[in-house]
Amino acid sequence: MRLSKIIIRNYRLLIDAELEVDSQTTLIVGRNNTAKTSCFECIGKILTGDAFSFNDYPLKKRDNLYKNIDLFMEKKIKFEDLCNRVEPISVDFLVDYSLDNSDDNLGALSPFIIDLDMDITTALIRVEYKLRVDENKFWKILEKSYYSEEVFKVSNDAHDAIASNFHKLFEIVVYAVNPKNEEIIQRKRQSELAELFPFQIIRAERRLGEDGTSDDTLSSLISSYFDMNEDELDPSVSKKIMELRSVVENANKKVQNQSDSILSELVDKAIGFGYPNREELQLGVTTHLSIDDQIKNQTMLSYTFGNSNESLPSSYNGLGYKNLIKMEFLLSAYAKRVEKCGNAVIPLLFIEEPESHMHPQMQHAFAQYLEEFITKITAAKVQVLLTSHSAHIANTMIFQKIRYTQKTKNGVIYKNLNTFAKENSDNVEFIRKYLTLTKCDLFFADKAIFIEGASERLLLPDMIDKCKRLGDFDSQKYQLPDQYYTLIEIGGAYAYKFIPFIKFLGIPCLILTDLDSVAGKSGKNERIYYRSVPVSQGETTSNETIKWWIRKNKELSEEDKTKIPLSEIMTMSPDDKTIDKCHIEFQTEENGFCCHSLEEAIRNVNREYFGLDESSTEDDLEFTGKSKTDFALKLIDECSDYIIPRYIRLGLKWLNEQQVLE
Question: What global pTM score does this model have?
Answer without folding.
Answer: 0.82
